[in-house]
Each structure stands twice: as C-alpha cells, then as structure tokens.
Amino acid sequence: MPKFVAVAKTSEIDENQAKVVEVEGKPVALFRVQGKFYAVSHTCAHAGGPIGEGYLSEHIVTCPWHSWQYDIRTGKSISVEGAKIPLYKVKVEKDMVFVAVP
Length: 102
Ligand code: FES
Fold this sequence. Notes:
Elements: E1 4-9, E2 17-23, E3 26-33, E4 36-41, E5 55-57, E6 60-62, E7 69-71, E8 87-88, E9 90-93, E10 96-100
Antiparallel strand pairs: 1-10, 2-3, 3-4, 4-8, 5-6, 6-7, 9-10
FE2/S2 (inorganic) cluster binds near residues 44, 46, 49 and 68.
C-alpha cells in the first residue's frame, strides 16, 4: 500500500480548477474535473513549465509556456509522442484529498 499524504480540502478546488500542492517536497498539480481529483507533476517534461497554471479543458491540460498537452488521467502527452509527466494516485476521504507518495 502506498503512503498517502493529505494535501487539500475538497472545497479548496473548484470544478475545472487546479491547486499546486507539495508532496514530499515536490510540486504536484491537483485538478478537479467532473467531481473527481487527479494529480500530476506540476513540472512540464519539456522545459519545466508550471502545469498547474495551464489551461484545462476536460481532462487535457495545456502547459502555459509552449503548449504541450497532457491527459491528467495518465500523465501522457497527447501532443508530443512519448512525452510524459509523473502521475500520482489520489484518494478522497470525507472532505480531504490525499496524494500517494511515489
Ligand atoms: S515548458 Fe511546457 S511546453 Fe515548454
């Protein structure tokens, strides 16, 4: 079983929004889409752009720096073949969101 850490209250993240949190010192972008939470690295695989500040359309986030796009359900880029950012497991208990430590 992975270790989970509490990162935010569910009420802190509105639908189709993100919050950047820290998991063991690493910045993680936490998104809420259709009532579910997803967590990927906040650091773009291209040049380190801030994924959690990107434009979100359903499950696709676009990096604000050079527009690489990632599916937040998998961490895989849909615009650049083979590009990927780390994906984190997420769970919700009561009103808290937890992210697994890799
Ligand atoms: S840093 Fe994200 S697309 Fe360039």
